[in-house]
């Protein structure tokens, strides 16, 4: 019984090789033929690509913060509409497991769990749309083992407790360890602590993914530290949201990539195609440290205690309120929910984005923060279509097959998504069908919650989840296990 057929497609199989033409056939959640004429039956769902639409493996968003979104927004509409079928979760040192009591994830689920298996049970019971591959987060385990606000090195016993969490996560299917070394409490860990934890991931073949200690003035030192951790721990390295923040540092991404090439180490990266970054305001500034320059470059994305500030510049809000930016920061951060305020800061150059996208080992990661109450950074809804609109069609710096490779087979191999990322017979049927002449992001900073154009159909594990603007409501996603084809 053939379940689904995409007819007359331009086939981008994920390898980066030239487009082929033909049909793609799906049965029982797997791809059963690629390129050959499909044999449809009476119950077969058929999509006509008219010789114009590309059929490729579903895109893999390698940098997400969707650990809680699997529960809070199980349809994952903002990802599915971009053509994403798998998400790497647990980035920047923050994972949804073990539940720490300081994240909001267990209150959403109404339960807690001590490990990845517990998290798997909770999210799987409710169901969710996309596949997810977990990293275990250093910040999360450090909160448990050392404490959330202890600015000191871990003791040997605490280090061993953290290594235990990493080992257990790897046994339960995680793909590696992530760090967020600008954040609390990860920033208090020295290089040796990270090497010790990455070694525990390496024992199971896992990788080390890092939001590095500094992405501006000391970018190159941070890259050197990250490469060293991989070398000493014996594991591959993945650098998250590669960037050079701050005008004085523009251009350094080129030096950073050169440093990686010279190291000879096994390093991959991801980036998102926007010049603004975004994250929790409380992690970047305090009422004492906030500067006029920072306030001028930043706007409010989500601001739970003062929704009227959302979408507005920090300096402009302070001026309207007749207070200093320090007083404004104090007002927000002291209010209930104020520490969940998300800021969006403009600090990168277009030229650096161009350098990033042209690097062969560069994947795509949205870094979207999935809180739809406010005005999220448009990357949450627009990242993947924007690559095609800006860099494939717009500037013509990478081809459709190469863009697809960076979004599919490259991340699948790196993060251990077995049986995914390639259109081959026997692979899982995670597919996207899109119009290469149309696909584009329409989410903006002012109006960020808009789904892109040009994505026709998205299929996950053989089930249709998106049909030209309509979400089917299906939740076929699986919490994947590292290098396990199931
Ligand atoms: Zn990060």
Please provide a written account of the structure.
Helix 7 (191-202) packs across helix 8 (219-233) and helix 8 packs parallel to helix 9. Strands 1, 2, 3, 4, 5, 18, 19, 20 and 21 form a 9-stranded mixed β-sheet that branches. The protein has a 6-stranded parallel β-sheet with strand order 9-10-11-12-13-17. A 3-stranded parallel β-sheet has the order 6-7-8, with no helix packed on it. It is of the alpha/beta class. It contains 17 helices and 21 strands. It is globular and about 65 Å long. The two termini are 21 Å apart. Helices cover 31% and strands 20% of the residues. The structure holds zinc ion.
Number of strands: 21
Helices, by number, come to 17
Q: Major beta sheet, specifics?
A: 9 strands, mixed
Could you tell me the mean pLDDT? 96
> What are the distinct ligands in this entry?
zinc ion
Poorly predicted spans: none
- What class, by secondary structure content? alpha/beta
Radius of gyration using CA atoms only: 22 Å
What distance lies between the first and last C-alpha atoms, to the nearest angstrom? 21 Å
Q: Roughly what percent helix? A: 25-40%
Kindly estimate the percentage of residues that lie in beta strands according to DSSP. 15-25%
**General shape:** globular
Features:
single chain; 486 residues; alpha/beta; nine-stranded mixed β-sheet; six-stranded parallel β-sheet; 17 helices; 21 strands; 20% strand; binds zinc ion
């Amino acid at each position: 019984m053939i379940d689904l057929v995409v007819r007359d497609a331009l086939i981008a199989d994920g390898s980066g090789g030239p487009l082929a033409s033909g049909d793609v056939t799906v049965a029982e959640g797997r791809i059963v033929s690629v390129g050959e004429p499909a044999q449809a039956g009476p119950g077969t769902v058929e999509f006509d690509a008219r010789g114009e639409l590309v059929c490729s493996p579903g895109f893999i968003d390698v940098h997400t913060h969707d650990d809680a979104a699997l529960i809070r927004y199980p349809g994952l509409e903002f990802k599915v509409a971009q053509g994403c079928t798998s998400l790497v979760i647990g980035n920047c040192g923050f994972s949804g497991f073990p539940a720490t009591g300081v994240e909001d994830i267990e209150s959403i689920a109404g339960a807690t769990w001590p490990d990845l298996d517990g998290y798997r049970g909770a999210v799987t019971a409710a169901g969710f749309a996309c596949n997810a591959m977990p990293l275990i987060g250093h910040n999360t385990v450090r909160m448990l083992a050392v404490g959330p606000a202890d600015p000191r090195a871990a003791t040997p016993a605490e280090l061993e407790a953290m290594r235990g969490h990493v080992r257990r996560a790897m046994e339960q299917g995680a793909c590696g360890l992530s760090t967020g070394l600008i954040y609390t409490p990860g920033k208090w860990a020295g290089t040796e602590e990270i090497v010790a934890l990455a070694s525990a991931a390496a024992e199971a073949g896992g990788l080390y993914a890092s939001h590095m200690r500094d992405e501006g003035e000391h970018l190159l030192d941070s890259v050197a530290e990250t490469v060293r951790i991989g070398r000493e721990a014996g594991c591959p390295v993945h650098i998250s949201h590669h960037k050079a923040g701050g005008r004085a540092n523009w251009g350094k991404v080129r030096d950073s990539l050169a440093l990686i090439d010279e190291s000879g180490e096994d390093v991959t990266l991801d980036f998102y195609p926007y010049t603004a970054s975004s994250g929790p305001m409380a992690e970047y500034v305090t009422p004492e440290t906030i500067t006029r320059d920072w306030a001028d470059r930043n706007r409010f994305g989500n601001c739970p205690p003062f929704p009227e500030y959302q979408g507005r510049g920090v300096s402009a809000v302070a001026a309207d309120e007749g207070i200093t930016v320090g007083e404004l920061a104090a007002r927000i951060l002291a209010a209930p929910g104020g520490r969940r305020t998300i800021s969006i800061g403009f600090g990168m150059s277009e030229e650096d984005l161009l350098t990033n996208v042209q690097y062969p080992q560069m994947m795509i990661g949205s870094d979207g923060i999935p809180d739809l109450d406010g005005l999220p950074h448009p990357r949450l809804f627009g990242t993947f279509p924007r690559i095609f609109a800006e860099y494939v069609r717009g500037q013509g710096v990478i081809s459709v097959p190469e863009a697809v490779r960076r979004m599919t087979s490259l991340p699948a191999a790196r993060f251990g998504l077995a049986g995914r990322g390639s259109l081959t017979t026997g692979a899982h049927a995670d597919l996207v069908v899109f119009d290469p002449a149309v696909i584009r992001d329409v989410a903006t900073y002012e109006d960020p919650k808009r789904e892109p154009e040009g994505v026709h159909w998205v299929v996950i594990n053989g089930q249709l989840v998106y049909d030209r603007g309509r979400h089917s409501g299906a939740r076929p996603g699986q919490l994947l296990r590292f290098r396990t084809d199931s």
